[in-house]
Amino acid sequence: MKISNETKIGALTAIAITIMVLGFNFLKGKTFFGTSHSLFAKYTNVKGLASSNPVMINGLQVGTVYSITTDKNMKEILVNMTLTKDVNIPKNSFASIKNNPLGTTSIEIKLGDATDFLPKNDTIQTETSAGILDEAVQEIRPVLGQVKNAVKSLDSVLMTLAGVLDPNAKNNIRGILENLSKTTAGLTVSSASLQTLLNTQTGALAKSLNNVSSFTGNLANNNDKLTAVMTNLDKTTANLSNLDLEKTLTTLNGTIGELKSTIGKLNTNTGTAGLLLNDTKLYNNLTASANKLNLLLDDLKTNPKRYISFSVFGKKYKGDALVIPLPDTVNAPYIQQK
User: Fold this and answer.
1) pLDDT for 177-205, tens place per residue?
2) Which of 99, 125, 100 is nearest to 39 (CA)?
3) Contact of 295 with 322, CB cutoff 8 Å
């Protein structure tokens, strides 16, 4: 069977058109033999984003921009992304446009931490990202603030320096230098005095050291005596340590206990000593006996004939006996018993 040239040309044209369409769609991100799905995002400014620009997640390209459409008002721009890799994108993820002046503008998807994932052909949340220039300005702004503060500090230093270098301040500085010169001269004199003090022949320090040397020499000469004194002291402490101090204290405690017991008995009406100290009957009896003795002595002094008769012709005295002592008995007054 013979094929005409017109048929061959038509077939080749159809094949070329098909290849051209497939290639165009492939360049736009559409795949025909792999798994891919669409994802949409809405922006107010796409910053030069175009079809076939990459879609990145964590620095890895997972798809491309398929189409960008908008309405007549240009208030909202819809971006259709084709994801060529099967990835799970949490629902709280964000898609931002990264503008690169030195390269291609891309879409960066920042993954969230949700456990639910976006289904196919769904719309992802968007956020506005700063460009490289804006990021550079944000980085430079703190540095500019520090430079501004440094300029203010430098201005303050210059103002202070200008105030220091006025005529009055110069005179003050001159006075300070003169005082410093006088102080240096005083230090020179002080160093000379110190040198005199430290002189090994006539200095006071040398004399003090000589006295110390003499004292240590005396100690060295009396070393034997000091040794004997320390030996005697050691023997004395040894004798004191050998004393049975515990036994002595035990005996003393026993004696104190017996003394307490004796004093306790004296404070009671038990025993002869306790009765002598605490019973008033003995005191009353002794007082009565003393009164009677005083009365007898006074009666003997007043009426001696009652007791002694010495007369041959006389007769015995028969007067009444005394009932109370005489008034001159002062040291032993009579206590009348009831």
Assistant:
1) 888 888 888 888 877 777 776 666 666 67
2) 125
3) yes
CATH of 34-129, one of 1.10.260, 2.40.30, 3.30.410, 2.60.40: 2.40.30
Burial class of residue 152, CB neighbours in 10 A (0-12, 13-18, 19+): exposed
User: What Cα–Cα distance (Å) separates residue 2 from each residue in 5, 8, 12, 13, 81?
Assistant: 9, 11, 17, 19, 48
> What pLDDT score does 12 carry?
83
Q: Which two tokens stand for residue 35?
A: 């798994």
Tell me if 80 sits within 8 A of 63, measured CB to CB.
no
Q: What is the pLDDT of residue 258?
A: 85
Q: Name every residue whose Cβ is closer than 8 Å to that of residue 318 and which is 6 or more positions away in sequence.
A: none
The span from the CA of 41 to the CA of 125, in Å, is: 7
**311 falls in which pLDDT band (50, 70, 90)?**
low
Phi, psi of 95, deg, nearest 5: -115, 120
DSSP structure class, residue 117: B
Give the mean model confidence (pLDDT) for residues 106-132.
85
Query: Residues 330, 282: contact at Cβ < 8 Å?
Result: no
Claim: this prediction has a pTM higher than 0.70? no
Give dist(CA 87, CA 108) in Å, integer: 14
89, 83, 77, 67: which is closest to 42 by C-alpha? Answer: 77
Q: For helices 204-221 and 223-242, what crossing angle results, to 10°?
A: 60
Could you give the count of Cα atoms lying within 13 Å of 189 in the half-sphere of its Cβ?
5
Side-chain half-sphere CA neighbours of 297 within 13 A: 12
**pLDDT tens sequence across 219-244:** 888 888 888 888 888 888 877 776 66
